[in-house]
Amino acid sequence: MLSANHLDSMFPFHFTVDGEMRIVSAGSALRRICPNVTDGAEFSRCFTFLRFGMLPTETFDGQYILKQRSTLFIFAATCSALVLRMQVLVLENPTRYCFIGSPWVRTPAEMRALNIVLNDFALHDATVDLLQLVQSTDRAIEDARRLTSKFEVQRNDLEQLIDTANAPIVGVDAAGCVLVWNQSMARITGIEKHDALKTHFASKHVSEACAQSVESMIASAVRGELTPVLEFELNTKCGDRRLVICSVSPRHDAAGGVVGAILVGQDITELGEYRSTLEQRVEQRTAQLSQANAELSRAMRSKDDFLSAMSHELRTPLTAVIGLSELLVEGVYGPLGTGQTKPIATIAESGQHLLSLINDLLDVAKIGAGKVELNWGDAEVREVCDASLRLVAQMAQKKHQVLSTRLDAAAPSIRVDERRLKQILVNLLSNAVKFTPDSGSITLETHADMDAGTLTFAVHDTGIGIADEDITRLFTPFTQLDSRLARQYAGTGLGLTLVMLLTEQHGGHVSVTSQVGKGSTFSAVLPWHPTAPRASSPASDEARADVKGATPPALSDTGPVIINADDSESCRMTIGDFLRGHGYRVVDAHNGAEAIAAVFEHHPVLVLMDLQMPQMDGLSAIRLLRSNAVSADLPLIALTSRRLADDRAQCLAAGADEFMSKPVNLPQLLATIGRLTGANSA
Amino acid sequence: MYGLVNKAIEDLVTIKFGADKWDAIKRKAGIEVDSFISNDAYPDCITYGLVEAATEVLQLPASTILYAFGEFWVLHTAKKGYGDMLSAAGRDMPEFLDYLPQFHTRVALLFPHLKPPRFECSDRRSNQITMHYFSERKGLSVFVEGLLNGVAKLYETPALVEQTRFKEKGDDHDEFLVRWGDALP
Asked: Does the ipTM exceed 0.85?
């Protein structure tokens, strides 16, 4: 049995009644709160029985207590709002009913109202813990309310943002049915949100042509895949279509799972119309440009025709001027009188100069029109350089200038159009010779750069030099820096332009360094990769040997027959007299038809055929000769003054064995005839 | 620590210094939590990070902030969240201080993931009491000093709180002597 003190410590709210239902003891906390609970006080004056309010307190006696000893007793204090929840303990000898338990309080506020503090409870009493738990739960609920309120505000903001965004926004569930439909969508389609909700977006609101694509996009987004931007047509309430461009992204739930898709787009109907207009304009403009291109092509063809005609008209008389003057100098027409040689040599020289001017002009025009195709091949650097130097050697010798080369042994060959490279070098060397005073020196140097993959051809001179400010003008066509120089140094001003164009066509570039009064260096830098040196060309050697070995021939009316077909009398005479001088019997023809007749009549060893002739042109005549068994293998050289890019190809395709451009280099013609007929000369 | 503590720091900064400062402190501490939930457990480093960031943003020493936080905890946070419970813990300051050890024991029961400090009372006299503070956490003795002063203010009892033992100086725990009434010097 517990002592009174222990009982009070363990149950500060207990009380005990005897069989008469009088208080015999009470806990200290209960006595403090209910001062009327004193020893000897009647139970019914201190408490009322609150068991559902059904049992009158008067009937509450020992018998009842014994019957209900396993029941929870609820008492209300008569002097305060205190309610006690108690369990009865029946004591024997004497009979006592000890009620132990706690005050029934649900909140700290109720405790305060009853003037109870936590320390009033026994330490084992869970009431305090439950109160703290309730407090904590209240706090959690308050947090939840606070966060709910915050999220509510955010959700409202978001909904307002979506709803008022100036972009159509649609949210669909995983089945593609509409859950979100903002004002912009309503405005574009004329369909209000309440009518759109729960409808199937793709099948109901997208044009039939686009529905499948949109549905696929939504399905992709629902699978969590990245989807591209999609352009499609929306159906409107009034039956129109609106063009929109949309991005589709997955819709997530709070747990991060994909539960649908969000489509955010832009109405581009007006843009689409504008685009359509623009496309029409582009189409029109393209047609105009095509027409302009066609006109330009026609103009270009006209220009080519003009160049061709002019070339023919200029070269034909030049052939006669150069050829006849050379023959005069060679004494083909008999010995010249005193004082005649020099003027005739000047005529020949002037003719050659005029010819080079025409050649330059035509080259610039052709390169400018993109009509020059390079004939790529491996060239021996030394051979090209030597050949170029030989061409200017005579000019340099007259000015007592020293020509030298400094060639990089690391680059014995280069892949170029050999003829064009020679043209580049000759132009640079000619300029150097021209602008370098007497007794000056000119050096042609090559330098290979393995890292850059280039081979530089540099021409150094000790000439007059060029001021810095003039260098940029150097490569402009028809430019000579000083008009006085133009008078002093003959030239078209096209040489450097040609050098630049040809170098660039090779994929290279040109550069200049110069000091006034000290000299200049002009460089052509060409792409280069080391290649094996190539054997020298037998044809060119042969031509050179022939030139060197040529002796003044005598006129002959015997020997192998050559048909010389040309409508120009001067050309016929120049070439005819030259060939006769070399032992050939030359039969003239004025057009293609006469040439064919002459072939069958005179059985020639070779035919020279000009292309442009009246009645029957050269190409037609060649084709006819080749179609006949008698003349199918007859050596045939085509000649023309036109210098068009495709002339050579046309002639060879028609059946010519060789093609030569007029004015004809007579020694070269002789060598070619020798090669084709199997004899060096008649 | 439980979110309630971090929330209390937020309330302290927001009320005393403004919401902008709180945002700056959160940014400085690299905290991306929008709202702390009172009964959720957060790593201690968040609380320490917030205090450290507060010293830089507010340009105040950590001790000043922690002391203010201790007072604020009692006078604002506990009063606001647990006001009735607080007043039920004692009819006066001595009764409250006497109940403090029990309170933390019961808190540990309610929040199993929380590691609340342990308080013990000794040398109970009519106008002074010795409070012993045991905690695994470092550097919070100033916070406790502020908290005890907050209790005195809550019960409107002029009191003097004096730390008499220091864990940071090698003692096994922190100890505070709380004096009031006639015991005041």
From this structure: no
